[in-house]
Amino acid sequence: MAQRTVVRLVDDLDDTEIVGGAGETVSFALDGRRYEIDLTNEHADDLRAALDRFVRAARKVGSRQTRARSRATGARAAAAVDYSPQAVRAWAKANKIKVSPRGRIPQSVVERFRAAGN
């Protein structure tokens, strides 16, 4: 005897069955919580239109690739650097190279710092 399992994708708003690629699972986050909802293409467009004004005014805090990589490999600590950020910033300032006083130093500046014999 054989068993057959059938999985149906259904719009979470109105229980419309989604067939033939006429829908999608939409992921979003709000107040630190991540959500997924299965929607027909029409409802997915409605959701995006409703959030569009807020999305355009918001700041991005990561990329899809970064989140996917974090989930796939686990969160990692920042890689250790083999130079002194303070020394690079001081060198950049002395050489009139603009570098942010905080955060990551662009690789191009680090390479110039090393090429200068540091």
Task: Give an account of the 3D structure.
With 118 residues, the protein is of the alpha+beta class. The strands form two sheets. Strands 1-2 form a two-stranded antiparallel sheet. Strands 3-4 form a two-stranded antiparallel ribbon. Strand 1 (9-10) and strand 2 form a beta hairpin. It has four helices and four strands. The mean pLDDT is 85. The chain is elongated. The chain has helices at residues 41-57, 64-73, 85-94, 107-115; strands spanning 9-10, 17-18, 23-30, 33-40.
Give me some keywords for this one.
two-stranded antiparallel ribbon; alpha+beta
Gross geometry = elongated
Q: How would you state the average pLDDT, rounded? A: 85
Helix content: 25-40%
Number of strands: 4
Distance between the termini: 74 Å
Structural class: alpha+beta
Order of helices and strands: EEEEHHHH
- Radius of gyration over C-alpha positions, nearest whole angstrom: 24 Å
Q: Could you give a short account of the major beta sheet? A: 2 strands, antiparallel
Strand order of the largest sheet: 1-2
Q: Work out the helix count.
A: 4
Unreliable stretches covering 5 or more consecutive residues: none
Strand content: 15-25%
How would the blueprint of this fold be written?
Blueprint (H helix, E strand, L loop, with lengths): L8 E2 L6 E2 L4 E8 L2 E8 H17 L6 H10 L11 H10 L12 H9 L3
